[in-house]
Amino acid sequence: MTRHPANAALNTVDGLIRLGVRNQWYALCPSERVPAGDLIRLDRAGEELMLWRDAAGTVHVQEDRCPHRGARLTQGVHMGDRVACNYHGVQVDGEGLVVSVPGVPGCALEGRRALRTFPAREHGGAVFAWFGDPDDAEPLPFEVPEQLSSDGWDHFLAYVEWDAPWIYSLDNLMDPMHGTFLHRKSHTMGSGRREALFQIRDTDTGFVFEKTDQAGVNFDWSEWIAGGTPWVRLAIPYPDTAGPGGPFTIVCTATPINETQHAAFFWRCRQVTGWQRDTWRFLYKARLEARHWAVLEQDRVMEEAMPLDAWSRETLYQHDLALVRLRRAIRGEAQRQLAAREERTAAEVRT
Q1: What does the DSSP assignment read for 293-308?
Q2: How confident is the model at residue 290 (pLDDT cuts 50, 70, 90)?
Q3: Which domains does the chain have, with CATH numbers?
Q4: SS3 of the chain: helix, strand, coil, percent, to 5
Q5: Closest CA relative to residue 34, chosen from 58, 56, 17
Q6: How confident is the model over 50-74, as pLDDT tens digits?
Q7: Alpha carbons 92 and 95: distance in angstroms, whole number
Q8: Which residues, in sequence order, are CB contacts of 218 under 8 Å at separation 6+?
């Protein structure tokens, strides 16, 4: 039976855009926010979630709703390999299986896979989960950019939660020109031309939005990586005083919390190994990290001050081609998913 989302907004195209299209891996939080023995409550992508680790340290992501009466499981008891609801003691494991109903042993609820459970992964110091439509949709392969998967790269994760729609961060990341203005006083984005022409260059996994008349000077390009996770990648040239490793590469993703808030993840990456890695890590902590947080703060202030209906009163121009393409892609996917859901429902009615 097709399950219709409890959040009514997820039954509309605009709701899916604001809360995140399904059939995606979304980053939820840094791994350190899910300590052993705790039950963590998070709202992400329109879903109410419980995160916890079993006795082996494996992270589980499940709906924060007891299958018995809907009480919050995060108010329950962590029992190592299972969670017990504090309301009536019902126990569920990491696969969503009801393993015990202490009040009525042997009742029909025992042995049922009754708790919605999201496939989960940890990578790069963050927890990810697959949001399928339907719920049991087979997850796409969990793939990450080279900068987060190769031994030749090193990185630091910066995590933020901002009071703005998640799509505002995607717009911001796919807009290289804002660096020339908003970040003009930063230590790396004060040089280069203040005007530019852009082009879109297709790739095997998405597209690159790049300046046609300047490269390797400022924030001159950004890349949308389509597929199972909403990745954005960009690179900013760095002076020799910033240490070894070539251009400073940033790998980013964002996840809606609700329609007006989101979480964003920024992995700051350098291509370094051995002593160069040690030098880069020292310089980052000693000199660069505070500067990078200052740049993110400029983005936060700008995004949080934008009205929620900003899209409805825009006047876009050539520098916004990437935003138009990305928004069309997300809207098209939302429309396809709703159409597929309606088709499944109609097929169930016919049978």
Answers
A1: HHHHHHHHHHHHHS-T
A2: very high
A3: 25-131 (2.102.10.10), 146-330 (3.90.380.10)
A4: 30, 30, 40
A5: 58
A6: 999 999 999 999 999 999 999 999 9
A7: 8
A8: 176, 179, 180, 188, 189, 191, 192, 236, 237
